[in-house]
Please model this.
Amino acid sequence: MTAKISESEKKKEDWMNSKWRPMMGWTYMITCIFDFVVAPILWSLTQSLFHGSVQTQWQPLTLQGAGLYHIAMGAVLGIAAYGRTQEKLGGANNGGINLPSNVGTTYVPPTAAGQTMPGAFGAPTATTVTQSWGTTPIGGGYGSSAPGYGAVPPANTFGSAGVTTGFGGKPAPPQPDFYPER
Model:
C-alpha cells in the first residue's frame, strides 16, 4: 500500500520546514515586546485609571523562574542559526538561487608544520626601535646595555666611598661626614 502525497501537502511540509526558524525569532521578539514594553504600560494605565495612582510595578513574566524562558529561547535560536549555517555551508540554499562556486566559507587551511606565511602571526618581522629623546637607553629594556631590574648597580661615582652593607647584606644608608652642632 503506497500512500500518495498531494502537492498541497508537500508544500505545507516544505513551508513548515523552511519557516520555523523565522517563526521562532518572531515569536520571541513579540513575547519580549509584550513583556517589556506593552504590559508595563498597560499595567500602569490600568492602575492609574482604577486606583488613581500606580501602586505596584509590573513584574515581567518571562523573567520569573530565573529567566529560563530567555535561556531556552536563546538555545533554540542559537542552535537553529548554527544548523542553518551548516546547511548553507553544505550546499543548501534559499529558494533555489544559483550561487557562484566561490561564495560560501572563507576558511583557509593551515600551512604545513614549520612554515609560516609572511605577515602572519608568529612570523618574524623586521622592526626598528628608535628613541624620541636622548641617545642613551634609560635602562633595562630588551636589547639595551643599561642595567635593569635585578642587575648589579654601577660603581658609585658621586665621591663617597661606596655602599656599606648592613644586616643580611642589605645596603645601609650612608653615614654623614660631619655632625651639625645642636
Remarks:
- Residues 7-89 form one domain.
- The mean pLDDT is 73.
- The CA atoms of residues 44 and 56 lie 8 Å apart.
